[in-house]
Amino acid sequence: MKKKALSVLSIFALTGSLLAGCGSPAPQAAAPAQPSGSKEGASAQVQLEDTLVVAGNGATVEKLMKDEFFKKFNEKYPNVKLTYVSGVSTEIVAKVKAQKNSPQIDLTIVEGGEQEKGRQEGLWETVSATDIPNMKNVPADLKIKDDSGVVVNFTPMGITYNTELVKEKNLPVPTSWNDLTKPEVKGNITMTDVASNFGRSTMIMLAYANGGSEKNIEPGFQKMATIAGYMPTFAKSAAQLQQNLQNKSAAYTTWTMARSLTQKGTGLPVEFVFPEEGGNIVPNVATMVKGAKHPQAAKAFIDFLLTDEVQTAYATKLYYNPATPVKLPDDVAKTLEFDRSKVVNFDYEVLSKETSNWLDRFNKEIAPNTGK
């Protein structure tokens, strides 16, 4: 039991770009409010603002947040009115940037790559365990650069395939990123372009699988050109990927283990593969927006996201690997296992700098190859 619990903590994922430089500690502020029911709690609770605006992913994440997390938080802090703004990470960071002079969002939960873009834009406040006590439970190898946020969960990228269609068509069960470039899978792939993290991570991993990296992306572009010829078009959303797997117009896609397991739980006959060359991990990072109107409520909410109860819910209900040493049920711990020795650590600063160039080149050189 203990061994399995520890395996969930053996996180090698983000030791490259997410390893922090020494950021300045956050300014001293009022301590986070304590649960009501004690004199200390009653005194501290007054210090929380009466409003908090949280931005994060929609769909199942939004449902869990509103139906369970908000309600649990309000049991402890009933004076705080919670509002949720849903969207993909790129949209959320863009919105925070647009509102920089007058923030309307207090707290975001976004993917690591987008969080890094926001850090470079100066969008986030520095956080510390002084104001967010449960930060001390997040391992050092998940530390965010400049203490500009806190990882609250993560999930690996890989290949997902429809087991029924693979069997019906006698297609290969994927074990490698390069399996997506085999002639026999032509007409059976659905993928997003590199504007999405799914497509971008795939291109980078195809580079790694062929002697390159995010710093030498050429092999990735070459392989993506081949894959483009195997598809009628690139999908524009995760919902399209799901639909294509469901209606059996495609047998393979590339996305996260969390998404694959979630779809499997709804009855979609899919399996997730962490390729033999390895893969990256997608962290979800909670950040405080710089200049937010409700900073104390934001700190209390981030601390709440790192509690055992919430971390367990992320794992059991959304299949995200927890960011803290929470003891998971044995079956869940086993389901979330993958070979962490093969985790590839992307340099998010390189990604932040190069993604727009990659997208321009992709639209000119790769996208026109679809359907050919």
TrEMBL record:
Question: Which SUPFAM superfamilies does UniProt cross-reference here?
Answer: Periplasmic binding protein-like II
Q: Which CDD domains match?
A: PBP2_polyamine_RpCGA009
Q: Which Gene3D superfamilies match?
A: Periplasmic binding protein-like II (3.40.190.10)
Any one annotated GO CC term: outer membrane-bounded periplasmic space
Q: Secreted as a keyword?
A: no
Pfam families given in the database record: SBP_bac_6 (PF13343)
Record keywords, A-Z: Signal
Is Transport among the key words of this record? no
Protein's GO biological process: thiamine transport
Q: Which residues form the signal peptide?
A: 1-20
**What are the protein's GO molecular function terms?**
thiamine binding; thiamine pyrophosphate binding
> Per its record, how is this protein called by name?
Putative spermidine/putrescine transport system substrate-binding protein
